[in-house]
Amino acid sequence: MNLTELLDDLLFDYTLRTVALGTAIVGIVSGVLGSYALLRKQSLLGDAISHAALPGVVLAFMITRSYGSIVLMAGALVSGVLATLLILAVVRSTRIKEDSALGIALSVFFGLGLMLLTVTQRMPGARQASLERFLFGQAATLVVADVIAMGVLAVVAVGLVMLLWKEFKLVSFDTEFASSLGFPARALEVALTTLLVVAIVVGLQAVGVILMSALVVAPGAAARQWTDRFGVMVFLAGAFGGFSGVAGAALSSTGSGLSTGPVIVLVVSLITVVSMLLAPNRGLVWNWVRQLRQRRQFRIETVLVDLLALSQQHESIDYGHTVEAIHAMNRGRRGEARTLRSLQEKGLVTSRPGGRWSMTEAGIVEARRILEATGEIPDPGPLPIGQVRVTPS
Amino acid sequence: MSSQLEIVLIAVVVAAACALPGVFLILRRMAMMSDAISHTVLLGIVIVFLLVDDLDNPLLMVGAAAMGLLTVTLVEIVTRTKLVNEDAAIGIVFPGLFALAVVLISVYARDVHLDEHIVFQGDLVFAPFDRLVIGGIDLGPRTLVTMTVILALNVAFIVALYKELKLATFDAGLAAALGFSPVVVHYLLMALVSITAVGAFDAVGSILVIALMIVPPASAYLITDRLAWMMSLSVMIGVIGAVGGYGLSRWLDTTIGGSMVTILGLAFGLALLFAPTRGTVSIVRRRRRQRWVFAQTMLAIHLLHHEGTPEAEIESRVDHLWESLRWEPGVAERVIRHAEQHGVVRRSAGMLSLTSEGRGLAQEALSRS
Predict the structure, then answer these.
(1) For residues B83 and A276, is the Cβ–Cβ distance under 8 A?
(2) Contact between A279 and A226 (Cβ < 8 Å)
(3) How many helices (H) and strands (E) does chain A have?
(4) Chain A residues with CB inside 8 Å of B120's CB?
(5) Which residue of B has its CA nearest to A133?
(6) Which of A243, B47, B136, B181: CA 20 to 30 A from A190?
């Protein structure tokens, strides 16, 4: 299947269009709310919430005997919020640390959910698969009604984020400052966390509990690398999430037998890895290139300054110095010969017969400039060896 | 041995084996690492399975444990780039590796009994049927044997490196300064967590591994301040969870794993409420008692202040406390009764006077401030 066919299917194939729309919604809303979670160091809260939603899903079914998306999502929302409140309460009022509290909520709620799930197995007429898709997510089973339910929740969540943009941004960056300005900081924090739960609940039936946490963390983490502006970050995170959703749905529809959720997560993980490596400024590759460049610059300056120091011990600047002499002043480093050649290209040094090197007028000017810039005053005349320390330390 | 007894025994051994390394995870604030490791071991299993094409090969465990260590290392590498926080690093690394495992399974290992469901529902019910037979001798259920070995390994590790573990956990800087390597201890511990997670994962599923590693030690952490006690209590709570969970699952006819976690959740709730000194109940009681003790001291100081002065006539009257200390009559009455019971004041005809003990109490309180 080629790209145009895929695009054609995305737009006109009913099933794929539905699924892709659903996963795009999931990606966008979790990317947007995940950015706040990332900023507030609550990335793993998403993991805990998505696991903790299970007993709510099962209980909602047990009470209503309905498999409707809205009903099950409401159940998930209730137990997700409950788990979050319990985590916050335990962290605030006991010596239990946040990581333990997350782990406890995650595993206990989930265990309870599993127990309830086996109880429903014995209920007459229960279709286990309809509940189990919340565990592993089955984007392929999404129908229009599901997508509409997800869409409504997503619009509400993203709409609230835009409406309370300034307030949410403020509490995320500086809670104390927000409350000192008279904003209801605690209420805003609770609202933001509740919206995170909403985002997770929207995604559960598409990608399942484990992989949902990736969709909360990864888009925001990827977006963070490209910008220092929060608005851009949130937008990018939504875009990355949405793109992963569509790409995952499209790739898994190509008949390779891949399930959608894991493919979405692999796509978003790939985006994150690429962002961490290649994003300008923060990316590791750029960082590495910058370091190499700085190191090279440093080598060049060092050799030039060393050569100046050597020259000062001779009457004429035309006196040629050996590479060994320069190397002796730079113990532990190598590559002086190469550095000298690149200095020669710049017209700062000239080569003399017998593999020797000496400075040009321009080289002396440049070396003095370097010494002045590093705060070391260049010596006016010759000095005995041992007292000169001209290399920047 | 009946298979039911064997199930209980396996549950108990798994719980004990998980609780021990869990104590250090809690103390080192790495609880969520158990979440990450218990998921990514699936990738290790899948990769080794694709290489050896045999689900019973012991190399599977080696691969899984190695993947656990790789997870820890990757999280550290990502954290060290300073591009994201540590929690985000965990949240990026483990779902990615897990998704890779699921995709590998669905592409290469479709027809094998190996899928992502194992992560949630390892099944203890079937454990007794998979027996380890060597040289014609039935050594018991395979899981029981592996987990007993792992438990022994955990105990041996902790006994052998108790001092180092304790030091590296509570004061890594001091440990390094004294010449112990906290890094080596850290990786040994993570290796142990990985091995334990792999062994237990097979028996009870990964979410239960998290529960067994975190919940008993966290409950014990609320109860005691001593490391040795914390470990013993964790094992005890884990064992209670195992036995109680088995009972609950029989009663409700439901999954053993889920029931064990539910019991553990209850145990944590009980610890939260009733732990001595740190439990909610004892905190509330202590606060209430402190309120009355404080009020009684206030009363004693007030009386001492005016003792022998002309105003003592007025100030020592019970109905004057509203004006001097702003106590409602009801509150004042309760404070006085409390103080009388503790021999701090005497009351006669609406007048209060200090006993010698009360005088001592007030003087002591004043000298402290």
Answers:
(1) yes
(2) yes
(3) 18, 3
(4) 110, 114, 135
(5) B117
(6) A243
